[in-house]
Recover the amino acids of this structure.
């Protein structure tokens, strides 16, 4: 029987620990019909999966005993920061979900000249990240920063040294990928309508390569997912 994975924000430091997420406990009792003796996989975002047995189950919490532990399979992957122009809520949330599954390290929501949406819901995105991490088998949590303009994120100096932007008029991404040996990237993908001429000029001013994914024009959410997959999936 397939065991389900659940995230805890409290570091697992011993073989016996408390799990106090009331929403998850309710799910265990009412949906999965877990009881004392049932087994679950719990992780704390630090790269380990803990196979645990429920030793006590209360209305608001549970006592767990670690039966086995193993490293997850997300080690030694590339470091990808995806800087995504803000788009409609459902589409942006889909990008976040798929980025988790693919192994993106960090997302920066970017306020662009053509962004239709100007705000994000951090609590909603955190929930999507946790659910996607539980489902995918990933051992660490992807992070999402606050919204920033292109200039702000470039000025902060938090991005990897290798930074690229995607635009239909750019040079071949396929050729770029074949010639680069970098394993840490920041990739900028525009909103619906793409980056403006002024924004493209800003990228070039910062000595960033502007690349094209192909001859067809992709939707913003599709382009974001394709970019992440092309960098991360060999």
């Amino acid at each position: 029987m397939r065991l389900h994975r659940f995230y805890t924000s409290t570091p697992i430091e011993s073989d016996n620990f408390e799990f106090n997420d009331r929403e998850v406990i309710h799910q265990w009792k009412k949906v999965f019909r877990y009881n004392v003796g049932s087994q679950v996989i719990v992780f704390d975002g630090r790269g380990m999966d803990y196979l645990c047995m429920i030793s006590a189950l209360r209305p608001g919490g549970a006592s767990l005993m670690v039966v086995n532990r193993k490293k997850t399979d997300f080690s030694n992957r590339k470091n990808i920061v995806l800087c995504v122009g803000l788009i409609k809520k459902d589409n942006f949330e889909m990008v976040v979900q798929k980025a988790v599954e693919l192994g993106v390290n960090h997302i920066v929501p970017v306020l662009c000249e053509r962004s239709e949406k100007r705000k994000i819901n951090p609590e909603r995105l955190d929930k999507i990240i946790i659910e996607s991490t539980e489902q995918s088998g990933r051992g660490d949590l992807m992070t999402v920063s606050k919204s920033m303009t292109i200039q702000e994120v470039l000025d902060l100096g938090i991005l990897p040294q290798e930074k690229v932007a995607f635009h239909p008029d750019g040079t071949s991404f396929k050729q770029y990928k074949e010639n680069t040996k970098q394993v840490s990237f920041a990739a900028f993908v525009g909103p619906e309508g793409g980056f403006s001429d002024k924004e493209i000029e800003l990228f070039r001013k910062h000595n960033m390569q502007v690349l094209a994914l192909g001859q067809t024009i992709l939707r913003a959410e599709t382009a974001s997912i394709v970019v992440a997959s092309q960098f991360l999936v060999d």
